[in-house]
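Continuing from yesterday's entry. The apo prediction looked reasonable, so today I'm repeating it with 2-acetamido-2-deoxy-beta-D-glucopyranose included to see how the binding region is handled. Same sequence as before; SMILES copied from the compound registry.
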Amino acid sequence: MRVLIAVFSLFIAVHAYDAVLFSNQREIAGVSVEQLVSSATAEEPIVFIVNPDFTLGQFSVRANAYSAEPATDYLAKSVKNSNFHESQYFPSQVEATSAQVITSADQYKAGSAVYVLAGEEWVSMEQLAEQIISKIDNSVGIITATDAVSHDKNRVKRVATDEMDDAGTGGSTGLTASTGSNENLLGPYALPLVLPPYNKTDSIKPSDAQSCLFYLEGVTVVVQQKNDKVLTYSNAYVPGNNLTYKYLDGADALCVNTTVGEYIFRLRLTLTTDVVGKHQNTEAFTLNNGDSIDLTLNITGDVFGYWSLKGATLHSAKITGKGTNKGASVSEQKVGPAAVQYAGINSVQGWSLVCGQTQAIFFPTSDDNIKIGIALVNTQIQTFNVRNPDKWRAAAHFTLQTEDCTGTFSPGSWMGIVSALVLIGGLLFGYVMLQSVQTMDRFDDPKQKQIVINVRE
Ligand SMILES: *[C@@H]1O[C@H](CO)[C@@H](O)[C@H](O)[C@H]1NC(C)=O
Ligand SMILES: *[C@@H]1O[C@H](CO)[C@@H](O)[C@H](O)[C@H]1NC(C)=O
Ligand SMILES: *[C@@H]1O[C@H](CO)[C@@H](O)[C@H](O)[C@H]1NC(C)=O
Ligand SMILES: *[C@@H]1O[C@H](CO)[C@@H](O)[C@H](O)[C@H]1NC(C)=O
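Holo prediction written out below.
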């Protein structure tokens, strides 16, 4: 399913130019291709590695992104093993007029600021790169399409027609690091929660830099309790009506404006009423009016175009025990990839994930026998390439490509399909058996005396 979506999303991405950037020595995160080219020098050169058909899809195939076997391709391996790598889109051609264009290994001369290693297709490009790139020190490699780099001033600039190309001077980015003080908290706002909270306050408007969007209608708090080695689970659904949220501008929705990197969402929820959690039909715990459920999600996008939840921090949450159940609290608990891998929060760049209810993410608490889990209810998450068609009216949109976390076949439908197949199998077996019933060739043994029936009149 995800592979399919990745393949489809590649068709959508070809309006702009794809590029894979990699370097061993230089940090390149967040630096655009144009900036890299304009600041290139002979000491810190840029090496374009191009072929006419390059797309991220071609790269993913070469990198064996969809199979478990490691890549054998030289370029794909170099990217994977490099210290810094990321992928970028850029909407229009990069000017590199003084570049040294190399189509065979003997044309290489040291001392240029920008090199273009131009192959006919992937294989010749890869061979050229293998022969030359090790000779160029301290470089940044950029694998992209031949068309994406113009080394002839007179060529007509080709402009992509994607929405990414929106002639945007989106104003201040709101991404500057914050001091972290809580005085500037905006809100409280009523749910559904939207991060960034567009249309809640005039100060927060969609901009080109804010490429992600997060939506949430409620949470379920799940409490795992260990009694004599038996795990029991109780849970409380907290609807949006019983919650409010706050927002710290510049800290609570931090997204890199590209496909590789971190997307951080912080949900600062506060309860506005007591909510009771139950184990089967007995009350097990309460969440109290005024308590907070303060959760940060750390979503990370990789160079192959997937994004997934890689970590989470529960800044604060508290349950009060009922009856024989004990209470517990959590403060600043961080969990890593192993704890969140089954939450099912992952998709493909450019797509949004829609989920009726995610799996809970569990955090250790003050009590060793109790874990508190948070599940997101009716949520939609997109990390990259949110649409801002009418940005001046404070409306950011999820893209139309969405992936549902439930998948096409639920366990229930699989049960139906499998039992139907078994029944059809039985029916076919019976039918074939009936088909093969024939009358016998002879009713009696020829060697025996014929049966004579005398009829006397
Ligand atoms: C974010 O990315 C889009 C599309 O690549 C681009 O148009 C926009 O200028 C970028 N914004 C910033 C602040 O880098
Ligand atoms: C809590 O949510 C329930 C269900 O939506 C609603 O009926 C109730 O009024 C809410 N309580 C408060 C105090 O808002
Ligand atoms: C997010 O997760 C990544 C990958 O596990 C990690 O390297 C990074 O430090 C985390 N960032 C934050 C802010 O926790
Ligand atoms: C913004 O909110 C107001 C009411 O709060 C609503 O009428 C309007 O449609 C909203 N605008 C957008 C673009 O969602």
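Comparison notes:
- Residues 239, 241-242, 272-273 surround 2-acetamido-2-deoxy-beta-D-glucopyranose (ligand 2) (CB under 6 Å).
- The chain has seven helices and 27 strands.
Will overlay with the apo model tomorrow.
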